[in-house]
Amino acid sequence: MAEEISINDRFINATNEIRKITKRPSDAELLTLYAFFKQATEGDVTGSRPKLLDLKG
Length: 57
Description:
This protein is mainly α and 57 residues long. 51% of the residues lie in helices and 0% in strands.
């Protein structure tokens, strides 16, 4: 049976793979990577969503 990899090890492996990227990702790809990073490090959003025109948040 295959050995289970911990969530922490999977995160470390993913960050190591990201560091190997030689070509700059597109803005959309960077936004997606940032979203995954924030979800992994901070978890679910706990605050309320800012109003549409509230630029300061």
